[in-house]
Structure formats: structure tokens, C-alpha cells
């Protein structure tokens, strides 16, 4: 399940934009490059520590029930407001890109904004 990683990302967000970004890329590196289980809380805590997050605060925030509520609220918003059915779904202007796509697709969508 991706829910634990999404909850951890919400907890990391509470430590500011830099911490959030570092954690975001740390989770992707762990999952995609290192083939680690980012649904495992121990691994998520290790990523947080390696990204310079305050581990105590991260744990406290991760246990806050509003973190899970936020994850589910964002999911419902994506489904209800944007009709998201695939991950990833990227919306650039009026362009909707679902699933994995080559960089040229994103570049063309961005070029259409100018």
C-alpha cells in the first residue's frame, strides 16, 4: 500500500518545504532505486532521519490522526474534482496525462501553456 508513504509525506510537510522535498525524493530513491518497502514505518523513519528531519517530531506528526484524514481527503478531491483514476495523473493546463509517459509528452503539454 502507498498509504503509509503518503502519510509520512504529510508528516514531513509539517517540517517545511525543504524537509518535504528532501523526504519526497528520499522516498522515491528508496522505492525506485534501492527497491525498499516504503510501506514499512521503520524504513520511512530511516528516510526521514537521513533527510535531516526531526525524527521525534516526524513520529509525533505521523501518529496524528489528521495526517491520515488529509491523505484520504486529498484522494477524494483528486477523484471528485479531477476524475483521477490512474497514478500518476498529471494535469497541465487542459492536458491530462495518465500513467507513465515519456518526457516529450510533458514537454509538449508545458509548451502548450506558453
Question: Please, could you describe this protein's structure?
Answer:
- It is a single chain.
- The mean pLDDT is 94.
- 18% of the residues are buried.
- 64% of the residues lie in helices and 7% in strands.
- The protein has 114 residues and is mainly alpha-helical.
- The protein is globular.
List the helices and strands and how they pair.
Layout: H1 3-13, H2 17-33, H3 41-50, H4 55-62, H5 65-82, E1 89-92, E2 95-98, H6 103-111
Antiparallel strand pairs: 1-2
Helix pairs in contact: 1-2, 1-3, 1-4, 1-5, 2-3
Entry summary:
By secondary structure, the chain is mostly helical.
Features:
114 residues; mainly alpha; two-stranded antiparallel sheet; 64% helix
Helix content: 55-70%
The mean pLDDT is 94
Number of helices: 6
Question: What kind of sheet is the major sheet?
Answer: 2 strands, antiparallel
Going across the major beta sheet, what is the strand order? 1-2
What is the count of β-strands?
Answer: 2
Give the low-pLDDT segments.
Answer: none
In whole angstroms, how far apart are the ends?
38 Å
Order of SSEs: HHHHHEEH
Shape: globular
Strand residues, percent:
5-15%
What class would the helix/strand composition place it in? mainly alpha
As a whole number of angstroms, the C-alpha radius of gyration is 16 Å
Amino acid at each position: 500500500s502507498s498509504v503509509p508513504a503518503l502519510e509520512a509525506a504529510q508528516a514531513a510537510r509539517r517540517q517545511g518545504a525543504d524537509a518535504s522535498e528532501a523526504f519526497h525524493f528520499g522516498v522515491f530513491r528508496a522505492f525506485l532505486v534501492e527497491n525498499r518497502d516504503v510501506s514499512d514505518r521503520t524504513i520511512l523513519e530511516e528516510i526521514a532521519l537521513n533527510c535531516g528531519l526531526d525524527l521525534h517530531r516526524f513520529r509525533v506528526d505521523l501518529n496524528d490522526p489528521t495526517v491520515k484524514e488529509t491523505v484520504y481527503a486529498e484522494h477524494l478531491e483528486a477523484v471528485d474534482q479531477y476524475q483521477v483514476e490512474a497514478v500518476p495523473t498529471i494535469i497541465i493546463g487542459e492536458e491530462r496525462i495518465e500513467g507513465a509517459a515519456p518526457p516529450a509528452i510533458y514537454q509538449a503539454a508545458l509548451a502548450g501553456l506558453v
